[in-house]
């Protein structure tokens, strides 16, 4: 019988939360019909072109030329000096790249400072729930998004998942900071560097014999793929918070969406594909995300790595305690079908603890239910639930603690 132990639960909960902020993915022959109208987008109109055939030509051509010229290691060194949104760009960057970044770091005309300020309030109030949903909903979901799973697995980052997770967590941290998109913030830097990293992946991954053998597209990370992954983040997070009946005022919910709409724009997603409301986001997700979720050998291996946190959490034989807890949480959040795809076993004790205890635990935390009236399992495991929340949030916050620079990859995963 698994024996819950406070330290083990803490450590694994935190690491998983961090993963959540990072994860993204795609399925086997995942490709849903695109009929979503640009009328529901932040642009309000557009050509309605199927985003499966749209990438990011401006960034892609530029980064391909830098890779072909062999200057990316120097460029990455210079990019490390660019940390704040409004900072003067390092003088050693090639001039075409400087010009591109100057354009790419401009905020969209529809960005609303008031909403972004409210989004920060929401992140502060709900940071604990956001950590665990980014981790267990978004993060683990990315492993059943076949295209994302394959791209992540066969790209350079796939060879060092710990580094990748740290870098991805930075985006989850930055978007929740007070000055995220302001001159002294870092979210624009993170988005524009990620845009460059994705352009690098588009150039490099088609040269990987491993990726080309299994991929169902010639070039990865189309605008459609980007929106799929985007929905695995804010749309899925909000759906879970609603399901758990976390009380969220309408203006905070809209503000959280807005911060992610701006993120999508800064990542190079066209405005005509970015939903303008939760209703539109849910409708688009139903069309592009839900039908493509599927297991792949790569995704199963990635999920295993993510769950096997004992191997990336320094210092302990935590495996026997942590996997059951994290596996049960994944099953609870993503459901039986996805858990089975990922070959996550059933853990009768922990499965029941989450099923019976999680929602009442949230109600107790929110002051909507007295602990005395909650099911016994809530009293027994309150500390565990609470620490899972805290550590997941802490892990996302750890993005603040040391300098992390997202880089343009120079190769693929050799394995
Ligand atoms: C890199 C976020 C969509 C595949 C990154 C990084 C971030 C990020 C923060 C930098 C981390 C690192 O360098 O390790 C996002 C967000 C997305 C998105 C927020 C959508 C809203 C996608 C999609 C795919 C993808 C759709 C594939 C289908 C990758 C790969 C890397 C990467 C392969 C590079 C890893 C390497 O350096 O080898 N992404 N991403 N991403 N992303 Fe994404």
Polypeptide structure, described:
- 59% of the residues lie in helices and 0% in strands.
- It is mainly α.
- The chain is built from 17 helices and no strands.
- The model is unreliable at 1-29 and 310-321 (pLDDT under 50).
- The protein has helices at residues 6-22, 57-68, 72-79, 95-104, 113-141, 146-154, 161-174, 187-204, 209-214, 223-243, 250-266, 278-288, 297-307, 319-334, 336-341, 348-365, 376-397.
- The structure holds protoporphyrin IX containing FE.
Write the layout of secondary structure elements.
Layout: H1 6-22, H2 57-68, H3 72-79, H4 95-104, H5 113-141, H6 146-154, H7 161-174, H8 187-204, H9 209-214, H10 223-243, H11 250-266, H12 278-288, H13 297-307, H14 319-334, H15 336-341, H16 348-365, H17 376-397
Residues 24, 26, 147-148, 151-152, 155-157, 164, 167-168, 171, 194, 197-198, 201, 220-221, 225-226, 229-230, 267, 406, 409 line the site of protoporphyrin IX containing FE.
> Termini distance?
37 Å
Unreliable stretches: 1-29, 310-321
Number of helices: 17
* Hetero ligands: protoporphyrin IX containing FE
Question: Nearest-angstrom radius of gyration?
Answer: 21 Å
DSSP summary, beta strand count: 0
Order of helices and strands: HHHHHHHHHHHHHHHHH
Largest sheet: none
β-sheet strand percentage:
under 5%
Give the class from helix and strand content and strand pairing.
mainly alpha
Helical amount:
55-70%
The general outline is globular
State mean pLDDT (0 to 100 scale).
88
Keywords: Signal
Pfam families: MPAB_Lcp_cat
Domain ER-bound oxygenase mpaB/mpaB'/Rubber oxygenase catalytic: 133-352
InterPro entries: Lcp-like (IPR037473), MPAB/Lcp_cat_dom (IPR018713), TAT_signal (IPR006311)
